[in-house]
Automatic annotation (TrEMBL):
It is found in: Cytoplasm. Homodimer. GO terms for biological process: L-arginine biosynthetic process. The gene is argD. It comes from Pleionea litopenaei. This is Acetylornithine aminotransferase.
Length: 402
């Protein structure tokens, strides 16, 4: 096919996405070029995926080297890259056992299945209820989308899997009222991503852990978006003083190569005996080799320490911008997972700001219709931050001017 355009998408693809008119063809670091040769600053990071930016040499080398050795063997065998990556994750987190998949949705599917299996093994089949939170997001399989607390993603797919209850995020009383000895797990994002970049109170997170302990329920942290240095720690649970029983990881874990992981303790992992769960491509050598290279780059003190400083720098610039335009209620988030919540006058217009900023030369995201989301490369430079924010400011100016 010689020339593709946005129109080609409408001709050949199922219409479940509505991509931008711009078609990216090349990326390097925090910069992207489209098919017309126009350059953009990438503040979107492939939705918090490209933690090292585009085409990082360590990733390219890892992929190229592994591609010349071994691509796929199936889980009838194990392989060196998978074992090496699992060891890195175990050495740096609470986890004692790892399961690999291909995406965040698959990592969560495994986490939720394991939570039910563990409860069934240890307490009986009636202990199967999962409690999650409104505005949560955990993936697009029927199980994970049902645990996610957003009705718009489940409409038309009924009947949904049962035994799932939703309560208000950051409301401990609501959880207290819902949790019981039939609860097998409480599932939460340490920072709600799709729900609007909502950072809960530390006391809430600690309270969730205590309630889980009281009711013999597992605490499952979905760190698909918050994991791998995104918040300035390797995983966001490390900020909270709370340790989950199961953690899901994906997105930045592969830096752009599809891979997911479920991390857990030895005690909980025992319920996944041979044959209980699997994945054809999960733990394949290509994905694990790339993810190991990504891990080594992110897990450097100089990289992680810069994340909080960049958060502060961007926050100050956004608030200065806001003094001029008055479009934001607040800037929230942690590290380089940031949300600028729109003021009352601009409710529902996040997409307008996103489109206007794209036209001015920067890629940003939405987290719902009322929040602009930024999740750039952890390695983005101050100069690139300035260029991206200048494009955002021009975009805001255009939207405000009408």
């Amino acid at each position: 096919m010689s020339q593709v355009s946005r129109d080609t998408f409408d001709q050949v693809m199922v219409p479940n996405y509505s991509p931008m008119q711009m078609v990216p063809v090349k990326g390097e670091g925090s910069r992207v070029w489209d098919s017309e040769g126009k350059e953009y600053i990438d503040f979107a990071g492939g939705i918090a995926v490209n933690a090292l930016g585009h085409c990082h040499p360590a990733m390219v080398n890892a992929l190229t080297e592994q591609a010349q050795k071994l691509w796929h063997m199936s889980n009838v065998f194990t392989n060196e890259p998978a074992l090496s990556l699992a060891q890195k994750l175990i050495d740096t987190t609470f986890a004692e056992k790892v399961f690999f998949a291909n995406s965040g949705g698959e990592a969560n599917e495994a986490a939720f299945k394991l939570a039910r299996r563990y409860a069934s093994d240890n307490f009986g089949p009636e202990k199967h209820e999962i409690i999650a939170f409104y505005q949560g997001f955990h993936g697009r399989t029927l199980f994970t989308v049902s645990v996610g607390g957003q009705e718009k993603y489940t409409q038309g797919f009924e009947p949904l899997p049962g035994g799932i209850t939703h309560v208000e995020f950051n409301n401990l009383d609501a959880l207290k009222a819902a949790i019981s000895d039939k609860t097998c797990a409480v599932v939460m994002e340490p920072i709600q991503g799709e729900g609007g970049i909502i950072v809960p109170d530390d006391s809430f997170v600690k309270g969730v852990r205590e309630l889980c302990d009281q009711h013999n329920a597992l605490l499952v942290f979905d760190e698909v978006q918050t994991g791998m240095g995104r918040t300035g720690e390797l995983y966001a649970y490390m900020h909270t003083g709370v340790t989950p029983d199961i953690l899901s990881s994906a997105k930045s874990l592969g830096g752009g190569f599809p891979i997911g992981a479920m991390l857990t303790t030895e005690k909980v992992a025992k319920s996944f005996v041979v044959g209980t769960h699997g994945s054809t491509y999960g733990g394949n050598p290509l994905g694990c080799a790339v993810a190991a290279a990504v891990f080594d780059e992110i897990n450097k003190p100089e990289v992680l320490e810069q994340v909080a400083k960049k958060h502060q720098y961007i926050s100050e610039k956004l608030m200065a911008m806001n003094e001029r335009f008055g479009v934001f209620k607040e800037v929230r988030g942690r590290g380089l997972l940031m949300g600028a919540a729109l003021s009352d006058a601009y409710q529902g217009r996040a997409r307008d700001f996103m489109n206007a900023t794209l036209a001015e030369g920067a890629l940003i995201l939405m987290a719902g219709p009322n929040v602009l989301r930024m999740a750039p490369s952890l390695l983005i430079s101050e100069q690139e931050i300035d260029a991206g924010l200048a494009a955002l400011e021009r975009g805001i100016e255009k939207v405000v001017a009408g």
